[in-house]
Sequence to fold (246 residues):
Amino acid sequence: MSTPKVFISYSHDSQEHKKWVLDLATRLRNSGVDAIIDQWELRPGDDLPHFMETHLANSDYVAMVCTDKYVDKANAGTGGVGYEKMIITADLLSHIDSNKVVPIIRQFGTHNVPTFLKTKLFVNFSKDGDYEFSFDELVRTFHDAPLFEKPEIGNNPFTPVSETPPEKTGDPIREIMKYIVADFENGKNYTFYKNLVQVVDMSRIMLDIIIGDAVRKGYIALDRDGDIHLQSEGKKYAIQHKLVNA
Fold:
């Protein structure tokens, strides 16, 4: 599995907030996420816009830590010098896929996000008591590992009886069709008669009679060597009798 790269955008509101972001990034890296923050990457004299634009373009996700100050600066488009350039303005956002932006709420009593992210679902870190639940949701997002997988759709419980013929106990045609259909599903264009003799639980005489019935019904056809080819009616039979998943 590839390691997701996540660029964390945040405002330097306070030393306490910077420490919170640093701890979040550290834990993300310990959880298999390549988290990128300025505190590890930048030194005095480095080019801030280049740092932001490079990692925005190369990251799988952008985590935007939305405090009240962050939202105000993002909406106003302010921050032309220093660390305030860590705010992703609408101009920078236009250079990345907006589907990979994940807002993180780090506010108390509100859950505001920048105007251009109003329609996005967010991960709420505003309550310290719910930190573990929020962190789990965030990590699962980055690893594309949802807590609940969408189940497969089952059979229609109201399928008309006429479309689901009852299965006969010990139906010999179904017995041979099961093997013929399995061969077809495995990429074989025909079933060897000699192989069918070995796998079915019936005498060879009975097998020949059942094969004859299946031929007359149009389920199968025999070539000059006596080998068996599945026909269109046989494919319909396989679906109706649930020998394959429709």
About this structure: Residues 79-86 have pLDDT under 50 and may be disordered. Residues 5-142 form a domain with the Rossmann fold fold (CATH 3.40.50.10140). Strands lie at 5-9, 34-36, 61-66, 101-105, 123-124, 220-222, 228-230.
